[in-house]
Specification:
Layout lengths: L8 E12 L2 E13 L4 E5 L6 H8 L8 E10 L2 E2 L5 H7 L4 E4 L3 H4 L6 H12 L4 H14 L5 H4 L9 H13 L5 E5 L7 H18 L2 E6 L2 H7 L2 E6 L2 E7 H6 L4 H8 L50 E4 L2 E3 L11
Length: 331
């Protein structure tokens, strides 16, 4: 896919705020990124870094109140998803953008059969008859690797294993051939063997269908194996972004470097301890006026406490929001 391809999704300066009894929480702060046709963008960061809230903000999936998308544009082709009404947005969800959530047991409705839940978007968005929708549902279950698909259409979610339920969720997300698939930590609740099967499935589907994918995870090992580009989030904003090989070979942000050091190594002694990032993520009670990573950063200096760094280009499609350059010198 050429770098100059027109983005299928283009997000600019997204800001999302939650109103609470204790005041406002600035969960997403001026996040910008794009997604090109056929590309897989990995979004990584600790819990609370803003990954899921950012992606749910795009599609109006956050409860309002307390959530409010204050600023930004989300262009899906020539449509700004933040400027259209709920009815139009509901038509886009499932048809043009598919979403796979973390826990399939809570995402699937336990009182409806799997077949009904796959057929529903097909009939609503594609206008298929009941018979044609069932035929398409069988094709989708076969596509995601569920055996004896036609018979299993009439089974309920509890009759499927965790891995099979996640495959069903992927089938539902793919039902209307969406332009974009957003997967929010879809393998976190699964054991390692099933995780590997789901990742292999996503690779195959991406090659076969050519859709653009956003994969949200805290697992850098997963991103290394499937992503084209990586967006590292911290404190509700983008800390670093670039091609996956560039990020892993030349991490420019202290937070990215710290994340990479926490990855388990196959080499070393048996009693070697896992590395951790000291300190806690920031409390996002106000719009950031300083670097959110300052309190945990060994390189922090005076400017970090008075100015929130803006993203700057460091070459090779790689940008970073940090007052130090990748050689450890103030800029």
């Amino acid at each position: 896919m050429p770098d100059g391809a027109t983005p299928v999704l283009d997000v600019k300066d997204l800001k999302t705020v939650f109103s609470t009894r204790s005041g406002e929480v600035h969960a997403v702060n001026s996040v910008s990124f794009d997604l090109r046709p056929g590309e897989l963008l990995g979004v990584v960061g600790e819990s609370g870094s803003g990954k899921s809230v950012t992606m749910m903000s795009l599609l109006g999936l956050l409860p309002s109140p307390p959530a409010e998308v204050r600023e930004g544009t989300v262009m899906l082709g020539d449509i700004d998803l933040l400027a259209i009404g709920e009815d139009k947005l509901r038509a886009i969800r499932g048809r043009d953008v598919g979403f796979v959530f973390q826990d399939p047991m809570t995402s699937l409705n336990p009182v409806f059969t799997v077949g009904f839940q796959i057929c529903e978007p097909l009939r609503k968005h594609m206008g298929l008859s009941k018979a044609k929708a069932r035929d398409r549902a069988v094709e989708l279950l076969e596509l995601v690797g569920i055996p004896d698909a036609r018979r299993r259409l009439d089974d309920y979610p509890h009759q499927f294993s965790g891995g099979m339920r996640q495959r069903v969720m992927i089938a539902i997300a793919l039902a209307c051939d969406p332009k974009v698939l957003i997967a929010d930590e879809p393998t976190t609740a699964l054991d390692v063997t099933i995780q590997a099967q789901i990742l292999e499935l996503v690779k195959e589907l991406r090659e076969k269908l050519g859709m653009a994918i956003i994969w949200i995870t805290h697992d850098l090992g997963v991103i290394a194996g499937i992503a084209d580009r990586v967006m590292v989030m911290y404190g509700g904003q983008v800390a670093e972004h670039g091609p996956v090989r560039e990020i892993f070979a030349n991490p420019a942000h202290p937070y990215t470097r710290a994340l990479l050091r926490t990855m388990p190594k196959l080499t070393g002694t048996r009693d070697a301890k896992l590395r951790v990032i000291e300190g806690q993520p920031p409390i996002l009670g106000r719009h950031p006026t300083a670097c959110p990573f300052m309190a945990r950063c060994a390189h922090a200096f005076e400017r970090c406490g008075t100015e929130n760094p803006q993203r700057r280009d460091v070459g090779n499609g790689h940008d970073v929001a940090c007052h130090w350059d990748h050689q450890g010198v103030p800029v």
